[in-house]
Structures are given as C-alpha cells and as structure tokens.
Amino acid sequence: MKLIVDRTEELSGNIRIPASKSHTIRAVVIASLADGTSKLINPLRSDDTMAAVNAASSLGAGIEIKDDEWTIQGFAGSPKQPNETINFENSGTSSRLMMSVIALGDLYVTIDGDDSLKKRPMSPLIDALVDLGASVKSINGDGCMPITISGRITGGKTEVECRSSQYLSSLLISCPLAEDDTDIVVKDLHEMPYVEITLAWLDEAGIKYENDDFGHFRIEGDQKYTPFEKKIPGDWSSATFPLCAAAMTKSDIVLTGIDMNDAQGDKEVVNMLREMGADITIRDDELQIRGGALLGCELDMGNTPDALPAMAVVGCYAKGETRLLNVSQARIKETDRIKIMAEELSKMGADIKELKDGLIIRKSVLHGAKVCGHNDHRVVMALSLAGMISDGQTEIDTAESVDVTFPGFVEAMKNVKANMGLM
Prior knowledge:
The protein is α/β, with parallel strands linked by helices. It has 2 domains: 3-18 and 234-422, UDP-n-acetylglucosamine1-carboxyvinyl-transferase, Chain; 21-231, Enolpyruvate transferase domain (UDP-n-acetylglucosamine1-carboxyvinyl-transferase, Chain). The protein has 12 helices and 24 strands. Strands 22-23-1-24 form a 4-stranded mixed β-sheet. A 4-stranded mixed β-sheet has the order 2-15-17-16. Helix 1 (21-33) packs parallel to helix 3 (92-102), helix 2 (47-58) packs parallel to helix 3 (92-102) and helix 7 (236-247) packs parallel to helix 11. The longest helix is centred in the middle third of the chain and has 14 residues, at 192-205. The mean pLDDT is 97.
C-alpha cells in the first residue's frame, strides 16, 4: 500500500490519540499472568498488541475482545504448552516480554517473527534467562529469532546489558513469579522511561522489589498478580506525529486523550518542540499546538528513540542546525532508523548527516519524491510529515505498517485537513 502526500499549509481541528501500545501490551501480559479475570478499558487494537494477545491466548489465557473493552482470564503464572510455534510478527515488545513469561512454565516453545523481527537482537535476554534457570537457544546461533525456550526460571542472579529496555522490563514482570528471589545487575540502560512504565504496573499490582537507582534490582520470588480493571492511557509516541506536523505548519490543532503525568518518555517531545519555539498549551488531558517558526537546537534523544524519525523531519524545517544525539539504540528498532531517515530524507533534498549515535540536520527545502517506508510504522509516518512540508507530491510505500501502532493515522490526519491518502 502507498501513502500519497501533498504539501499542506495548515491543519485545524481535533485528533484523539489512540491508546498506548506500551501500556496495552504490558496490560495483556500482566492480566494473563494474574489469577482471575481482568478488564482493559480502551486498549489499543493494532498489529503489535494483537501479537501479544495471540501469544497470551496460545499460552492459556482466555481473552474476549470487544470494541473498547478486553476481558482476560489469566493462567495464574502457569503458562500452558502451545500447540504450535508462536509468531510475534513485527512486535519486539510482545516477543521480549513474553519470552520470560514462557520461561515460567516447564514447556518447550519455539518463537519466531517476520524478517524484521528476526534481525533484532535477543542475546542479552537469552543469557539472563539461562542464568535464572531456563534453557533458551537461538536456533541459528545469531542471538535472534527463531528461538526455543524450555525449562523454567527459578530465580537467582544475572546481569543484563540493556541497549533495549525491553530486556529488563521482561525480567521485572516475570521474575516475581519465580520460586526464589532474583537479583538483576543492569548495565548501560537505555530508554529508562519504558522501565518506569513497567515499574508503575508492578507498583499498582503490589509487587515487591528493590530498585537501586536502576543499576540493581532485587525482586522477591513466589509472588502473584491479582486481577485488575484499568483504562489504558493515550500513546505519546503516536501523538508525536500530529504534534510535529502542527508545529511545522500554520496550524491550530488539539490533541486529546493524553496525560502529561504518565511515565511515557515521548511526552518529552512537547518540551523539545517548545525549546525550538513551538506554541503549546496543556489543559488536563488535551494539548493545543499552534504552528510557526522553529529554531534548530541540540537534543538528547536517549530516552525518546521512537521520536527520532519525526524529529529528524522537524530538523529539516527548523532554521539553523538541529542535532539529535545519544540515540544509538534507534539502530536496533524495526529498522536502523538513523540510517534509514538519513537516506530517505536525502532523497527529498535534506541536508542531513548520519552520526554513530544520531543525526545532524540543517534547514532544508524539501521536494516530493518516491521514498521507502521500509515496513517501519514510525518511518512511514515521519516521511508523511516530510511530504507535508515538501514542494510537489511524495509517495511512500509499505504504508500498511502504520497499523502496528496507529490504525487510522491517515484518516485522523485527513480530518484535520492534511493532504494525504492511501492508494
């Protein structure tokens, strides 16, 4: 599927931001581990979250999906043997969080994914699970999927290098259900806000743990998750795209359904855009942004790697030079987003330089072009923003990938008068 985008001078109206992918997947995992029936209110139904749902179902959770409410009957910390390989498609979050869940049972399970997921590193989590008692092997010996998981974690000590925070979140969620206590030494932690999201879920569940400044965790064993009912908050990662679009055009739009008090790291995009000169007003669960002139600046993206594609486009629009730094982990997402954004924006005339850990972008006059979305939802949405500030028409392939996190993105943008459509 292709996304066709023409220059857009002005946006106006309201966009309701979909529920958080990160929260929804954690809710599915924890509800599945609980002993009883949980309810998720307003969860995100997307390709990634359905990967978690399908995996949980195959492990024994009873899941009923209605429009705005999912009911999950948990398997009380004892996952069942699935009938076949669990395919996580493109969902790194679901696959990594579920690896530790699988390791709670005395099972033999093979997990796999699409071509993109097969390239994403899993070795740090594999090694940690082995330290804690499970048998986990990368079938091709490259530290990636497909992977077999057998045996059972019982607790103990491990050290995990966290270029991806998902390794740590996976252990934090499942280790409380291990027989013994678990000690985790954390090295080189990236994306701390995502760990804070996980800890917020553990706190709500009453899970006992000790956190020594995110460098060492001690988790009590033989704990349980109890059923819950929770409304899933809006997704700041998804909000980034209309937020940046409005900042770069003569716009006045309102985003609803988001919470500045939530732990999601990408809410920092609000402060990034304000630092560049954007006019943003926050009221309760809504945010109003008025577009105008922006100035380039230096931004530490270490806690907000998912915002890198959109902010790279903002760098093309802003006067002067923008430096996006400390975000090497963006190279191990669905794609190498540093490399891909440099290549695709260059096709549109961007003055952009790739760094080991980020990008340097100078104000550029962009022109429409045929560009590749690389089956990466955030790259596709970011390139659609580039098309909105370009002369001429932009054509982006693999547009169907936006359904990974933001189903309805194109319609939402069209409703606020963006010149784009699918074909």
